[in-house]
Automatic annotation (TrEMBL):
PANTHER family: NUCLEAR AUTOANTIGENIC SPERM PROTEIN, NUCLEAR AUTOANTIGENIC SPERM PROTEIN NASP -RELATED. TPR repeats lie at residues 13-46. GO terms for cellular component: nucleus. This is Nuclear autoantigenic sperm protein. Keywords: Coiled coil, Nucleus, Repeat, TPR repeat. Belongs to the NASP family. PROSITE patterns: TPR. It comes from Pan troglodytes. The lineage of its organism: Eukaryota, Metazoa, Chordata, Craniata, Vertebrata.
Length: 174
């Protein structure tokens, strides 16, 4: 689109924004920040062109001013996306370092030929309340359980009678 559109076209800004979102969802935060920055550049170029057009068009500048205001409202949102991408990158790097440290630690203390059961004993010695801490709080839900119908035989007969009546209607219709 950069080849076919002007450098200040809103479609180009939207494309960079969408690419930034896609890179962000794919955890490619450097590329996301670059695309969001390009989107801001295109919007700023568009605002400069519109400001020039406002100066040239004396009477019909309301339309240009409206578009400038719309673009000004978009800029903080895009800058927020840039900050979010940078924050995600930092938190991703911290998580990656923690994961590497955990893997390195587990590989040094893990299954060795001399002490085959050391890791298993560490796992077994964990507290049993790690995943079941909420089991102490019991909620009575017996009022939500439906009771069976008292006369199941009568309800079945009524259903069968309805089916037979429908069958007789169909047989007379033919």
């Amino acid at each position: 689109q950069e080849q076919y559109l002007e450098a200040h076209d809103r479609l180009l800004a939207e494309t960079h924004y969408q690419l930034g979102l896609a890179y962000g969802y794919n955890s490619q935060y450097d590329e996301a920040v670059a695309q969001f920055s390009k989107s801001i550049e295109v919007i700023e170029n568009r605002m400069a062109v519109l400001n020039e057009q406002v100066k040239e068009a004396e009477g019909s500048s309301a339309e240009y001013k409206k578009e400038i205001e719309e673009l000004k409202e978009l800029l903080p949102e895009i800058r927020e996306k840039i900050e979010d991408a940078k924050e995600s990158q930092r938190s991703g790097n911290v998580a990656e370092l923690a994961l590497k440290a955990t893997l390195v630690e587990s590989s040094t203390s893990g299954f060795t030929p001399g002490g085959g059961g050391s890791s298993v004993s560490m796992i077994a010695s964990r507290k049993p309340t790690d995943g079941a801490s909420s089991s102490n709080c019991v909620t009575d839900i017996s009022h939500l359980v439906r009771k069976k119908a008292e006369n199941q035989a009568e309800s079945r007969a009524a259903v069968e009678g309805t089916v037979e009546a429908g069958a007789t209607v169909e047989s007379t219709a033919c």
